Amino acid sequence: NAGVTQTPKFRVLKTGQSMTLLCAQDMNHEYMYWYRQDPGMGLRLIHYSVGEGTTAKGEVPDGYNVSRLKKQNFLLGLESAAPSQTSVYFCASRTRLAGAQETQYFGPGTRLLVL
Amino acid sequence: QQQVKQSPQSLIVQKGGISIINCAYENTAFDYFPWYQQFPGKGPALLIAIRPDVSEKKEGRFTISFNKSAKQFSLHIMDSQPGDSATYFCAATPYSGGGADGLTFGKGTHLIIQP
Question: Which bin fits A42, alpha (ψ -120 to 50), beta or left (φ > 0)?
Answer without folding.
Answer: left
